[in-house]
Amino acid sequence: MARKAITGNGAIALALKQVEPDVMAAYPITPQTEIAQNYAQFVASGDVVTEYIAVESEHSAMSAAIGSAAAGARTITATSSQGFALMWEMLFIAASLRLPITMPVITRALSGPINIHCDHSDSMGGRDCGWIQLYGEDAQEGYDNAIQAFRIAEHMDVRLPVMTMIDGFIISGAIGPVETLDDEQVKEFVGDYVAVNALLNVEKPVTVGAFDSLGGWYFEHKVTQNRAMENAMDVIEEVGREFGELFGREYAHFKTHEIEDADIVLVAIGSAAGNVKTVVKKLRAEGKKVGVLKVRTFRPFPTEQIREALSGAKVIGVMDRSDSFGAQGGPLFTEISSAMYGADAHPQIFNFIYGLGGRDLFPDDIEGAVQMLEKAAAGEPVAQQRHYLNVREG
Amino acid sequence: MSKSAKTKKDKWDISDVQNWGPGRHEMGATIPESGNADDYETGGWRSERPVRDREKCNDCMICYFACPDSSIRVENDKMVDIDLEHCKGCGICAQVCPRDAIEMMNEIKACKLEEK
């Protein structure tokens, strides 16, 4: 193990290098570029024996990854924003063919207007494409999640593709401290790849991607896919626990800070969770009963565990770094609201949209949100509309 | 249905597939065996069928190699007939035949002739 000063992208590229998959099919896009570039360099330098497929677009990247994984190879790619959007139709195919591809997603806004900075419009837009989604707060979590993704995806009860997110620029481009593992530790942790129904296995020829017509079994296959998602719920926890036992950093579906006696809980995902934690510490010092819940697993969504964790809160503020136009609120808000509907006590839940297109989130913005939640907790009327943090009014 | 004899030992048993729930299917909707088109009639949507003139044909086998559905039946180096359960009527055989021994005939007309 070593402690390195490294960018989020650099940490993830290193994790991928240490796993050394059979195939990487990728197309560079800001702010993911450093991953594709670093990995191509590892291949060119002979540090890894991975077959690097330099494709002509992200649609081709995901198509090549699907072909490679179906052939029986451990396969990766990485993307951001418009590239993610261009992969769209192939993402569903990777998941429905049950191919354990892993993909770091360096989150970035979707056009338009054209914007290269961070928000979660890309990955949140893909929340229903059948991929497992893990969100990291910092470079360390990006590195650790990228490694664990292989174990989760390739588990025989799961066999689903996994995407691991870090925030574009804020984490991907910023240099921070990362505890890295040794190559042997990573290789031993992920283990050897076992292909299922590999197309290149001439001993057992198979057909992948056949047509399923009316009167067929499309419906049954979709149910199977969701069962795999349910299985992933336990597998993600098992893998996170084992990672903790071996390397000292344990992972669960989410992480809480000071929520046990909290009247007000902020729910955050991605790098903003760090900002919120800083503010919560300050407010706690002032005697305010505030806590934070940081979501790591968004798909499958850990409904029951989150419901239980938030059951003591009077007021919940859900922070979304993407909007869902015309919906009741951002993607995280609607998930949390649905989860809490099944709770015995019904806390008030408010939605805060922040950070679109890379807009800064300042501690004052978070404190302003908490003040609004305090009003609600005191019984004062607070509008149920979306509340935007650090947006220009007028 | 004229099935060629299956020599495979472990044929995928899908005899009760109509009753299969989510737990019974192969992961990812994969078909875990090859060559099972033999078990199905896939020529049902043909609009034209190839009709071979035995007098003109000299069994050169060009149509055999050109057919994308392996529907030219050959026995003892002779083209015996066309497997109409799998022929989709693409007309490639008629195109490549150097002796114009294969004619594409309207499927409905061919069926009516057959009935007579």
List the uncertain runs of chain A: none
Helical content of chain A stands at: 40-55%
Residue share in β-strands of chain B: 15-25%
Largest sheet of chain A: 6 strands, mixed
What kind of assembly state do the chains in view correspond to?
heterodimer
Give a structural overview.
The complex is a heterodimer of chains A (394) and B (116). Chain A has 394 residues and is an alpha/beta fold. Chain A is 41% helix and 18% strand. Chain A contains twelve helices and 15 strands. In chain A, strand 2, helix 2 (33-44) and strand 3 form a beta-alpha-beta unit. The longest helix of chain A is centred in the middle third of the chain and has 30 residues, at 218-247. The mean pLDDT of chain A is 97. The longest helix of chain B has 9 residues, at 107-115. In chain B, a hairpin with a 2-residue loop joins strand 2 and strand 3 (78-82). Mean pLDDT of chain B is 89; it is low at 1-6. Chain B has helices spanning 62-66, 92-96, 107-115; strands spanning 48-52, 72-75, 78-82, 102-106. The two termini of chain B are 22 Å apart. Helix content of chain B is 16%, strand content 16%. Chain B is elongated and about 55 Å long. Classes of the chains: A alpha/beta (394), B alpha+beta (116). At the A-B interface, helix 8 of A face loops of B.
Topology:
The complex is a heterodimer of chains A (394) and B (116).
Chain A lengths: L1 E6 H12 L3 E4 L6 H12 L6 E4 L3 H14 L3 E2 L4 H16 L5 E6 L13 H5 L6 E4 L3 H16 L7 E6 L7 E6 L2 H8 L27 H30 L6 E4 L6 E6 L2 H14 L4 E6 L1 E3 L3 H7 L5 E6 L10 H11 L6 E6 L9 H15 L9 E2 L6
Parallel strand pairs in A: 2-3, 2-4, 5-7, 6-7, 10-11, 10-13, 13-14, 14-15
Antiparallel strand pairs in A: 1-8, 6-12, 9-11
Helix pairs in contact in A: 1-2, 1-6, 1-7, 3-4, 6-8, 10-11
Chain B lengths: L47 E5 L9 H5 L5 E4 L2 E5 L9 H5 L5 E5 H9 L1
